[in-house]
Amino acid sequence: MTTLTPVLSAHWDEKDSFTMAGYKRHDGYKAAEKALKMEPDAVIQLVKDSGLRGRGGAGFPTGMKWGFIPQGDNKDHYLVVNADESEPGTCKDMPLLLANPHVLIEGMIIASYAIRAKYAFVYVRGEVTHVVRRVQQAIEDAYKAGYLGKNIFGSGVDLELVLHVGAGAYICGEETALLDSLEGFRGQPRLRPPFPAIAGLYARPTVVNNVESISSVPSIINNGAEWFSAMGTEKSKGMTIYSLSGHVTNPGQIEAPLGITLRELLDLAGGVRAGHELKFWTPGGSSTPIFTAAQLDTPLDYEGVAAAGSMLGTKALQIFDETTCVVRAVLRWSEFYKHESCGKCTPCREGTYWLVQILRDLENGKGSEADLDKLLDLCDNILGRAFCALGDGATSPITSSIKHFRDEYIAHFTNGGCPFDPHASTLFASAKAGA
Amino acid sequence: MVEMITLVIDGFEVSVPKGTLVIRAAEKLGIQIPRFCDHPLLDPVGACRQCLVDVEINGRAFPKPQASCTIPVEPGMIVKTQLTSPVADKAQKGNMEFLLINHPLDCPVCDKGGECPLQNQAMSNGRGETRFEGKKRTFEKPINISSQVLLDRERCILCARCTRFSDQIAADPFITLNERGALQQVGIYEKQPFESYFSGNTVQICPVGALTGASYRFRARPFDLVSTPSACEHCASGCSLRTDVRRGKTLRRLAGDDPDVNEEWNCDKGRWAFKYVTAADRLTQPMVRDASGDLQVASWPEAIAAAANGLRGKRAGVLVGGRATVEDAYGYSKFARVALGTNDIDFRARITSNEEREFLAAKVVGSKVTNADIDRADSILLVGFETEEESPIVFLRVHKQVRKRGLKVTAIASKLSTGNEKLKATFVPVAPGAEAEAIAKQELTPNSVILVGERASESAGALSAVVALADRTGAKVAWIPRRAGERGALEAGAIGNLLPGGRPVTDAAARADVATVWGIERVPSEIGLSSDEIFAAVNSDQIHALVVGGIDPHDAGNIHATLSALKGAFVVSLEIRPSEVTKIADVVLPTAAVPEKSGSFMNWEGRARAFEVAVPDSLNRSDVRILTMISDELGRPMALPTVKSAARELASFGEWDGAKSTFAPFSSVKAPKIGANQALLTSWRRLLDESSLQEGEDNLAGTARKSVVVISPKRASSLGVVDGDAVRVSNDHGAVVLPVLVEAIHDDAVWLPRNSRGSHLLATLGVASGSLVTVVKD
Questions:
Q1: Half-sphere exposure (CA, 13 Å, Cβ side) for A13?
Q2: Contact residues, chain A to chain B, C-beta under 8 Å
Q3: Is A231 helix (H, G, I), strand (E, B) or coil?
Q4: CA gyration radius, chain B
Q5: Residue A78 near residue A162 (C-beta atoms within 8 A)
Q6: What is the pTM of this model?
Q7: Structure confidence by residue, pLDDT tens digits, B640-696
Q8: Do residues B466 and B383 make contact, with C-beta atoms less than 8 angstroms apart?
């Protein structure tokens, strides 16, 4: 049994965990003070040594990303934190910001110092007003405490931190679309190269990091690279937050070392909801190919999930039991992608528009097995053809669900409609059964 | 030396300059990769995903196909297009299928059908049949993007060419993509409509029939049109055009492709102002004024005889107008000397000065400053010249360098224009008439280019200051008149101080050259009168006959003297439509409009812009042919029976290798004292205004800028007016009342459009710049 490693979430159960006092009670802002006394390059090296990889989905080594920023170029550098958490099933950054916003601010102070940025931005998705308020308050408190602004910690270093609230677009979680949006334009992904490290925000060298990645940095500064890399697996170091949702007894966030399995996580969460069994699940949100019970023991780290044919993504574990119609679930996801496609490129814009229509017909029992081949062929024409990864993600649930549940698709048109009772899969159905 | 990079595309090796995109390297081999969003003159965007190809660099293959419109070539690159890669082929066919699911199959009624990149490439790189059985996205159609551009949103494939053009090339980012997903669409900002002088280019580069021109929509099928390469008659930029004619009628004009001049763009006036050619009141038959003062239709021999009889034995002057082709201007030039025996000829049917005439002879004729000098310049100085309004392709040329490398532009003017704002120009505000002083203070280098407009002649001493500045700093000087014919007329000698090829009339050797070619004994040796002087000479009874080719008296500086001169003299008018001149003329001879004749213009660079007949079988003749008939009748034949013969003879002169006239500077005039409520008038013509060649083009006029009076914030507060209040600008002649706009303008100046709706300055005020006017709240 894996031992849990609560670091970011260690004090979420304390009433004032989100306040300056609550944060400082547990050595808050000590890491920043310490880092500011180090050489910036030494900070980068420490993060490199820790093996920390991006927690936003792609898993790119964080220290290496910081190292890409050209130094001595006489240009402004920017740090941008991606808090646009929008991936269906993902709910780790928002709870983290709600319960512990100061750890992000402290991480941003350290990261900005390392990359020599005098301005840092947090881009929070627009819908989560309660989170926005908490972060806003935390920033204000940090300014008052002298941790932000001019001459922070009396170190001679300046840092302005700007909170930006998005307007509710999934695409703005894509880092270059986020930069466009932050600049005041409509969020659409940019052509790369140039990469943000060379020409990002306002065409200046920019690091874009996920909330969890940056929030992990203070603990690395405090405890050292070895402490961090002792957790996790060979190539996936450290602790991370897994979000469990769906048909699970106790949904929520579990912070564990990378490489834990779903079987263990389900045990910790009280198992699949009572009286039901696991049918399929997503390892990293709806954009990652789905798994079934066969992957219960797959180590949930970057390599383990990839070897099993999916992606660790945002570690959003959506659990579906046997009452769920996979066609219905996939259709809902596809409708999301159609709604969120930014429209810039043809395969994603037109492809998602088309996929939804076919899936709707299939759900209603209209179509034939040839339509499954058409779906797969259309997915093949989208995957790797679209401008950014949104198009790729839109195809994952379709191709993986047909792979695992082809018969269930066929059952829809042999049955002349969906063979499932949609009511049975709802949570209120189980509540009633329990009562 | 450009570094060349060698790569392999579909098994063929090709070397291209570093930085070349794969899609264009393939073009060099004749391999056509399908594309929609790609445009060689716009920044790559990679949005349509149609041009996907397989790429491998030094043995490392990209895991997925790449957009060839965004990837620069690299050494060791191996590219497989749809011709050799099944993956690329499937990717392209799949993408085409996606593009077509929401595209209506209305090709039979679509303007683009027959010349549509989507139609063509769907045939060459698409599947035969669609697998789409669902519901297409539909929109209300069409919507007006402007009065002249219509948008059918359901046809749009969202390639963003139009929005990128407007932003990157025209600097008018008034259209953008809005919404998202399949509902993404081109839209306008309601508070700032798509009023761009270059909007027509978006219609031309739209790869589908989504953007259409209001005046061409549903008028023709491309395969029913006969296309002729032509040149634009509207300004001195000298755009290459394509004129599309159906059954003898011009239906549309497109920008031609000339990288040295207009690249692939033109302005909306050049594209959409051509109805004057087919106006109902076109003159088609010669007319002679009878004893009772009425014009009567006459036969050509009668009319030619009447013209010759009226001119015979009289001292006559020749006024050419700025729209003549080089060949016609040469005809007037030779007619004046050979048939009338005079140097009293002037092509400048506008406000002019003798300072300008000296400047043209000393510094402009034969000048070789070109667009390439703008491209290379380290800075541009604008004097009496608004690029966007008066020579829009020069604006695009300068803007390209401003955007690409931050070219420094300085504008000496009384008012900061929107064009100069877009060029990020340093604005040097001067009181009208005080330009010379500001010019003298400029610092330039031999790589700088001074672009001087025709309005510089309206400020005494300004051209002299330009010459002094160029002499001091080595900067190049280019003179950019507004009209298409002026530079050609200058080279043809249609001016009092020059003979063809820039030969000074005062130079005996030059005169001998000309006399030899013309086969006459002598060419008059005195400098001829300017247009103003010719009118004055008629009014003082020294000149008794005028040959007038296409001028509007309202363009002249002194309307009263001009009209009285036209009334007082025997006037032969060569015109295409009735005008203030034909109303008075004794003989009216109809001439061919540009599409009906061949010939050439010479743009401001001195570059020949030849064109052929676009509308065949017209009975109208070029001016030079008519002048030849009159000269025959006069018994002093000029022997230029065809346009070609005129072109050949003018070319035979070659360039003058003798001394040019030297320029003696003119002094500036002391500024008048400005009383309370008085201001110095300044104005220019807007590109889209009430000029005669734009008559009948209502869609075009719909995007003209509104007529306003512009005053400075200081004057506004002293008058107690704010934007939109009516202000009255008046003098002894008349008054103009317009809404006021408070902008960056010299405190002593007031600006009005020179010839726009409700603001015809020369007709109402009799002046256009530098004069004192009274400005009060109306």
A1: 5
A2: 169, 171, 186, 191, 338-347, 349-354, 357-358, 361, 374, 377-378, 380-381, 383-387
A3: coil
A4: 28
A5: no
A6: 0.95
A7: 999 999 999 999 998 899 999 899 999 998 888 999 899 999 999 999 999 999 999
A8: yes
